[in-house]
Amino acid sequence: MTTKVTSGASGVGLFLAHAVELETEAADRYEELADSMEAHNNAEVAALFRDLAACSRKHRDEVRTIAAEFGPLPSVAPWEFEWNATAESPEAAAFENTHYLMTAHHALRMALQCETQGCKYYAGVAAETRDPRVAHLAREFADEEAGHVELVKQWLRRYPTPPEGWDDDPDPPNVSD
Ligand code: ZN
User: How far is the CA of 175 from the centre of ligand 1 (A)?
Assistant: First the structure.
């Protein structure tokens, strides 16, 4: 295989299989982010993440409905997915970045990254595929993600960068248990 980037998503079925995986992982990660915000007693941001998780699940279901028109989705092993530069699907928030003191601002920054990467992935496929059906669907999906990017940006205005020292903890958790 000499081509890279989105070559794995060139056929409609394969593209849709990637989209299902992307949305599924995004939904799972948003549930985790929501749990984390709940643990921080931030019900408001937790609710936003539950909404975004629901969006991803809804989108996944829509993709499956579209896929039904094209016959069964090809089964793709986890290591066979071809994302741009990340091993994980582009929309899955990078959890290595979580911190137990993570504020709503930081959680939202992760969500922004997640949505931006999802949008870029779909836009990239739309730009590179030679299959007009894939291009059409990918453009539609990219628009949907762009809407999520805007939504998260709006929330970030309500939760601006916290002051220096947000991660200072005078009483760090006991790591021995
Ligand atoms: Zn999204």
Answer: 35
How far away, in angstroms, is 53 Cα from ligand 1 center? Answer: 8
> Among 37-41, 102-106, 121-125, 127-131, whose mean pLDDT is lowest?
102-106
pTM: 0.76
Q: Looking at the domain assignment, is residue 138 inside a domain?
A: yes
Distance (angstroms) between ligand 1 centre and the Cα of 15 equals 16
User: What does the pLDDT read at residue 10?
Assistant: 54
Residue 174 belongs to some domain of the structure = no
Q: Based on the structure, what is the number of domains in the chain?
A: 1
| Residue numbers of the domain that contains 19 | 7-156
Residue 47 CA, ligand 1 centroid: distance in Å: 15
Residues 30, 152 contacting (CB under 8 angstroms)? no
Nearest residue to 70 via CA among 118, 131, 126, 24:
131
The CATH number for 138's domain is: 1.20.1260.10
Do the beta carbons of residue 92 and residue 26 sit within 8 Å? yes
